[in-house]
Design a protein that fits this description.
CATH architecture: 3-Layer(aba) Sandwich
Distance between the termini: 16 Å
CATH topology: Rossmann fold
Strand order of the largest sheet: 3-2-1-6-9-10-11
Number of strands: 11
Number of domains: 1
Strand content: 15-25%
Helix content: 25-40%
CATH class: Alpha Beta
Length: 194
């Protein structure tokens, strides 16, 4: 792939992915988030699954709120991520709930919101490939959360991304667990194992 050491290579891929994602204009990102929600709602594996873990968007991430609101409307529980470094927990969320500032500028449910253990997880990302490889922000919060949830039960992991975030191959490390699917504004990608 490259002669760079893996951490440097991943950081380069992160910078490039941020640039591609940040270059998308706000109107496009809004429309794409709506389309991603539509495709996700038609994903059979996500039907009747509850609770679904989600996240509050930052920067230019895909906005999962249209999808999360629709999931709640059809009777599924949604739990938002809450970072308590170095770990992540999930707390139940309903549209209209008051959120509080959390780590990294992310809005989170308050400490009184009930904790939940998701059986499906919506995952933000910077880059992905068709085998389910994912590059995140490099802090490992979602990687650790997925590993902890997998200790309890199998979890359905769904990356939410714009099509421009796809790359040929994500460098994979032993601790990486491939995503089960990635949903972009263009398609639902059912990943193939490495």
């Amino acid at each position: 792939m490259t002669s760079l050491p893996l951490p440097e290579f991943k950081n380069r891929l992160r910078r490039e992915a941020f640039a591609r994602r940040d270059a998308l204009d706000e109107a496009f990102r809004h429309q794409a988030s709506q389309r991603i929600a539509e495709l996700a709602l038609g994903f059979h594996n996500l039907e009747n699954v509850t609770p679904v873990g989600g996240y509050w968007p930052i920067r230019s991430e895909v906005d999962p709120r249209p999808l999360m609101e629709a999931l709640v409307s059809r009777g599924q529980n949604v739990a938002l991520s809450q970072v308590i470094h170095p770990h992540m927990t999930f707390r139940l969320w309903q549209p209209g709930d008051v959120l509080v500032p959390g780590g990294f500028g992310v809005q989170e449910p308050g400490p009184d919101a009930p904790e939940a253990v998701p059986v499906a997880l919506l995952v933000p990302l910077l880059a992905f490939d068709r085998r389910g490889g994912r590059i995140g922000y490099g802090k490992g919060h979602f990687d650790r959360a997925i590993a902890a949830l997998e200790q309890r039960h199998r979890i359905l992991t769904i990356g939410l991304a714009y099509a421009v975030q796809e790359i040929d191959q994500v460098p994979v490390e032993p601790h990486d667990r491939p995503l089960d699917a990635v949903i972009t504004e263009a398609e639902l990608v059912r990943t193939e194992p490495y």
